[in-house]
């Protein structure tokens, strides 16, 4: 999947955390903004992305990804783009239908045995009458 560059908004910002004397002068971190509603993605993908539960997607449908792990702006830009593509891939992945199955005979016996043992343990805690 290729996202046109004009739909992406890269904003260089200063990275958080420790650094040397250079940290206050150079903006190496990147904020990537991607508007889902205004994008050229298929409508079904847009709906899935907008309903996807992810803190990087705002209520007005803008994906904001902050990349600051690398020391160069180019690497952070590539990292942010890769994370956006991964987010879109995860949100639009088709879930496999679940086939309803019945528990096996041995699993039923194990469950009942476990319940019986638990019952015995609990009944052993009762008050003793003489």
Automatic annotation (TrEMBL):
GO terms for biological process: rescue of stalled ribosome. Belongs to the prokaryotic/mitochondrial release factor family. Residues 120-130 have a biased composition (Basic and acidic residues). Pfam families: RF-1 (PF00472). This is Ribosome-associated protein. PANTHER family: PEPTIDYL-TRNA HYDROLASE ARFB. PROSITE patterns: RF_PROK_I (PS00745). It comes from the Bacteria. Residues 93-130 are annotated as: Disordered. GO terms for molecular function: peptidyl-tRNA hydrolase activity; ribosome binding; translation release factor activity. InterPro entries: Pep_chain_release_fac_I, Pep_chain_release_fac_I_sf. Residues 14-30 form the Prokaryotic-type class I peptide chain release factors domain.
């Amino acid at each position: 999947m290729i996202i046109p560059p004009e739909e992406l908004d890269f904003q260089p910002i200063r990275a958080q955390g420790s650094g040397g004397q250079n940290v206050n002068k150079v903006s190496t971190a990147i904020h990537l903004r991607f508007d889902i509603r205004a994008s050229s993605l298929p409508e079904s993908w847009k709906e899935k992305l907008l309903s996807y539960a992810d803190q990087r997607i705002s209520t007005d449908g803008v994906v904001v990804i902050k990349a600051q792990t690398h020391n160069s702006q180019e690497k952070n830009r590539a990292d942010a783009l890769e994370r956006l593509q991964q987010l879109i891939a995860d949100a639009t992945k088709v879930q496999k239908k679940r086939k309803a199955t019945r528990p096996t005979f041995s699993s039923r016996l194990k469950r009942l045995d476990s319940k019986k043992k638990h019952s015995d343990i609990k009944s052993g805690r009762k008050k003793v009458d003489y």
